[in-house]
Each structure stands twice: as C-alpha cells, then as structure tokens.
C-alpha cells in the first residue's frame, strides 16, 4: 500500500515529552497529531478506568478500528506510550524518546502520580522497556531513540525528524 505521507510513532515512557514533540512537529510539518490518549477517552476505546493506576484499560481492537482510516491515508503522528499494537504496514518511523531518571522523576512528581505508577515508569525507562518493545515490533532500521532531557534536545530532535520527512517525501515521489 502506498501513502503520499508517512506515519510516525512518537513513543516513550509517560513524561518523556511525547505530546510536546508531537504538537511542535505537527505545527512544523502539517502532519496530524493523533493523541491516542484522547482517542481512547473520546471514542470510548476502553473497558473502564483502572483506579490504582489512574488510567484507562484500553480496548486495543476498538482503538485500531478508530484510527485505521486515518492511518491508511498517512500523515499521522501517533502519540502513545506503547507501540507494539500498531500494524507494521502502517508505520514508517518509530521515535522512542528517552530521558534521564532524575529528570523523569521530577516531571512525574509534578503531576502527582500515584507512587506505584511513578516507580513503575522510572523502572521502565531505566530498563529500556519501550525501546526494546519498538525493536521487537518493527524493523530496526525504522526505529530511532532520541534524548529528551532539555529544550535543546527537543529542537535537535524536531530538526532531525523534519529532515527525515523531507527525505521520505523525495524517495517516495521518485518511486511513483
Ligand atoms: N525535551 C524536554 N525538555 C524540557 N522539558 C520537557 C521536554 N520534554 C517534555 N518536557 C516537559 O515534561 C513534561 C511532560 O511532557 P509531555 O506531556 O510532553 O510528556 P508525554 O511523554 O507526552 O507524557 P504522557 O505520556 O503522560 O502524555 C511537560 O511539562 C513538558 O513541558
């Protein structure tokens, strides 16, 4: 299936900077920021609320149905703390954002996360869980991990993704 625009996943542990990156990237490129959190909530792609973790229990089949048409058209920036559920055929680039554990701790503390959720997220970041998930789910050549500790990191990441997008468009224009 050919798309005239690529689909990009921006993933990583909660608090790493996915939404911040996606919003700016959407502004800079015109691609659509697809906030999976928002879709799960708005389109009720869930089986209820987990009180302990203070998060929705996602119904993945319903979620995939909800975004399938947009994903098949292309031009989506998928913003979520997991990536293994999206079909490989939909995805052109997977960006895994990374952050130091002290910085992540400060960011999550500011959100008043429950202690259990805070600790699990710090452990997940230290143990590379999201990066490994991306490597297990997609071809290694489309997976990139980028640091997101500072606003300078974010600027550099956005430049890099924009350059990748420009190249993707050139390559795919030649192919058609
Ligand atoms: N590279 C960065 N440099 C400095 N601050 C950042 C950076 N990235 C994110 N932040 C700050 O960290 C906080 C969390 O960022 P953001 O909401 O984008 O994370 P997220 O990964 O989308 O989280 P969630 O998965 O919970 O939606 C925000 O206050 C944001 O301003």
UniProtKB/TrEMBL annotation:
Residues 110-120 are annotated as: LID. The keyword Nucleotide-binding applies. ATP binds at residues 15, 17-20, 111. InterPro entries: Adenyl_kinase_AK6, P-loop_NTPase. Its EC number is 2.7.4.3. GO terms for biological process: ribosomal small subunit biogenesis; rRNA processing. Its main location: cytoplasm. It catalyses: AMP + ATP = 2 ADP; ATP + H2O = ADP + phosphate + H(+). The keyword Kinase applies. Belongs to the adenylate kinase family. AK6 subfamily. Interacts with small ribosomal subunit protein uS11. Not a structural component of 43S pre-ribosomes, but transiently interacts with them by binding to uS11. HAMAP family: Adenylate_kinase_AK6. This is Adenylate kinase isoenzyme 6 homolog. It comes from Lasiosphaeria miniovina.
